[in-house]
Amino acid sequence: MPKPQAKTLTIDEESAGQRLDNFLVRQLKGVPKTHIYSIIRSGEVRLNRGRVGADARVQAGDLVRLPPVRTSERASGKALDLAAGRLDAPAREFVVLFEDDHLLAIDKPAGLAVHGGSGVSFGVIEQLRVARPKAPFLELVHRLDRDTSGILLLAKKRSALRNLQDQFRERETGKTYLALVAGQWPANRKVLDKPLHKYLLPDGERRVRVTTQHDPDAISALTLVKVSAKTAGFTLLEVTIRTGRTHQIRVHLASEGFPIAGDDKYGNFDLNKSLVRASGAAALKRMFLHAWRLQFKHPHNDECLTLLADLPAELKAFSNHVSISHA
């Protein structure tokens, strides 16, 4: 194996603004983070010929010296393949709702994770990277639960990623979902301001529950609920989230006594079983939660954009069967 050599990288516009440690994690695939922090502390990494801390921000035109770093071919090769989306990920394109040089919005199907990890070999991002090998940059802006379908936003430039993530973090976006619940939702509009608490089941699976403001681990969660349509047995809700917490909509609706139809974590399990066993359009074999509308400002020109994703065929068929429709 040839002896590794030190090299100097020039920061480009797309990498500008990152913390040094995050920049190095992307550059040194297969190198443990503990080692990356070690070479920063020791001064082996230099920014413009000077020693800096891990939290230093790199700017366009900066020079970063990377010391010789040796990794096993197997470890580094696997890391590179995973980063490039080549590790067991088949190439796949998805329904495109919007695309330009800065961003990509797709209609994610239910049952597919947005990224690999935690026992999932690959997700949307890995498949898209394989399908678009010449794309210089492609990153998730936000997340959707595996069992949720609908609008998923990706950045094609680092500057767009930073801008869009800032909008999500500052709650400047509008995210509205369609959710079907059994029974008659009692009010036309309702605000659910209930803090949430994350915990793990004995098998290590993640769960969330409503808690109190006095819980030291409480995280704020705000959900706005509007009735879209009703039938004798179900209510279709337009649910807008002001905070993007794990399982927020699912837990908030369940806490009101109206779990989402088909929800296998917080739902009415007897109802779910009966819906799965039904035949034809009467069957519902997934959770009825769909990311329907997304409003945000274009990261390049600040134009206000509103994207819509129609209900997928299986949810539309069930809606028609129970005589409920979304205008």
Under the CATH scheme, which architecture of the largest domain would be assigned?
2-Layer Sandwich
Structural class: alpha+beta
What is the helix tally? 8
Q: Any idea what the shape is?
A: elongated
Strand and helix map with partners:
Elements: E1 7-10, H1 20-27, H2 33-41, E2 46-47, E3 63-66, H3 73-83, E4 95-99, E5 103-108, H4 124-131, E6 139-140, E7 149-155, H5 158-169, E8 174-182, E9 189-193, E10 196-200, E11 206-210, E12 222-230, E13 234-241, H6 248-255, H7 269-277, E14 289-297, E15 304-308, H8 313-321
Parallel strand pairs: 7-14
Antiparallel strand pairs: 1-3, 2-3, 4-5, 5-7, 6-7, 8-13, 8-14, 9-12, 10-11, 12-13, 14-15
Architecture overview:
There is one protein chain. The protein is an alpha+beta fold. It folds into 3 domains: 7-71, Structural Genomics Hypothetical 15.5 Kd Protein In mrcA-pckA Intergenic Region, Chain A (Roll), CATH 3.10.290; 81-169, Pseudouridine synthase, CATH 3.30.2350; 174-321, Pseudouridine synthase (2-Layer Sandwich), CATH 3.30.2350. 23% of the residues lie in helices and 26% in strands. It has 8 helices and 15 strands. A hairpin with a 3-residue loop joins strand 12 and strand 13 (234-241).
